[in-house]
Amino acid sequence: MAVIVPIRGVRYNPAKVGEVRNVITPPYDVIDAAAQNMYYERHPNNVIRLELGKTTPEDNETNNRYTRAAETFQDWLQQGVLTHDPKPSLYLYEQEFEVGGGKLVRSGFICGVKAEDYSKGSVLPHEETLPKHKADRLNLMRAALANFSPIFGLYSDPEHVVEAILAGAKDKPVPDIEVLDDSGVLNRLWVISEPKAVQKIVQFMAEQKIFIADGHHRYETAVNFGKEMAAQGKDGYDFVLITLVNLYDKGLVVFPTHRLVRNVQNLEAVKLITDLAADFTVEKLPPGTALNAFLAKLETAGATGHSFGIYTPEKLFYILKLKDESSLDRLDLENRSAAWKRLDVSILHTLILEKQLGIGSRQRADESNLTYTRDENFALASVDNGSTQLCFFMNPTKVEEVTNIATGGEKMPQKSTYFYPKIVTGLVINDFSK
Questions:
Q1: What's residue 363's pLDDT?
Q2: CA dist., res. 256 & res. 398, Å (int)
Q3: How many CB atoms are located within 10 Å of the residue 35 CB?
């Protein structure tokens, strides 16, 4: 089962950098070029220079964003901008945020986890990955010998054993770090170094499986990196930084990821809507329907069946609802379980994107005809301004669907889940040399 370890985490020194808010970022994979520039300008010691450095036309094998990240990391350690915690520790991590007008707190802990092949069964994926993203992360790990951002994992603890141990091990009520990030999430971190508490949690997790919620590319990269270093006779490089959250945590929230269709030849929205009636009941909403009203209706439809929303260039919303669930069992999907076939995202990809639009696995992988967004307003705007042909709106994937698919040894299509809020980058760094 899962092997976790306490780490001597690397953290920012407030005496050197001032407010921690100015040196943290979201995960690298949600940062676009504009945000990258903004974080560069915000503070000279912002973690963006380590996690997602800029490229230049002069880059070569010996001077590039990976080598610069490595050099910067060592410089900041020598200058005291970053410092190692004195003892191997776990890090209690709370995020307080608002959803639907109410406040929630998601609690977890940061540690190292042994990065092993999925076949070992200790850490399980739920989504497919893309090779180009793994190559980027591997180059960074090779150069810097560090993890600058944790992946996000889930474990099962219905009795809340780990939370109780962590709460009892706090040596003070005030967190070591408390910072409000750009998305309005309040992040709190306590260093937990009490040996008995740490050992109890390590022992508890030795009986658990970990389900990757976010960070599949980084985890698979860590597995490959650990193997590379072991082949060179170097041990201890096969543990990756991870934030672990209980599946039964009341603050565990999943948002949907919507699909934007583009560059499909001869796509006529009106004809598509007509063709979809073969598999779905189609409800056209009145012109002028507000986005919030549409999303509420989509949520209601999803509570009783597999449902999707469509927004077209005619500024019209449609609700699709699958007519006959048993038809999914007749789909020619070799080696796919009934549970996989009944995922909303699987139904969308097979019965709509592939069957009606010719958007298969290759097009989804290279994103030539399909891109993704979590922002409903952006989705509407992209259709209205013509950069997108139409948008498919999704209901969120259920957490139990994630764990069922992972336990069954399958993977969901890319971008099936969006766990909110994102884990902040820069609170704790894993230095393989310590």
A1: 66
A2: 10
A3: 15
Side chain identity at 275, as an amino acid letter?
Answer: D
Structure tokens at 365: 């992988």
What whole-number distance in Å separates Cα of residue 419 and Cα of residue 214? 7
Each residue's pLDDT tens digit, 25-42: 999 988 999 999 999 999
Low-confidence stretches of the chain (pLDDT beneath 50)? none
Residue 293 backbone phi and psi in degrees, to 5: -65, -40
The residue with tokens 């971190």 is: 189
Between CA 215 and CA 27 the distance in angstroms is: 9
| pLDDT at position 61 | 93
pTM above 0.85, yes or no: yes
- Integer-rounded Cα radius of gyration of the chain: 23
Extended strands (E) in 31-89:
82-84
The crossing angle, in degrees rounded to 10, of helices 291-302 and 376-384 is 120
Instruction: Tell me if residue 272 falls in helix, strand or coil.
Output: helix
- Position 4, amino acid: I
Gap between the Cα atoms of 259 and 279, Å rounded: 19
Residue pair 105/251 in contact by the 8 Å Cβ criterion = yes
The CA distance from 306 to 303, in Å, is 8
| Alpha helices (runs of H) in 121-179, residue ranges in sequence order | 131-144, 161-169
pLDDT of residue 341: 86
Q: Tell me the domains of the chain and their CATH numbers.
A: 4-253+420-431 (3.90.1530.10), 257-395 (3.30.1760)
Residue 311: how many CB atoms within 10 A of its CB? 26
Residue 406, pLDDT score? 87
Contact 80, 66 (CB under 8 A): no
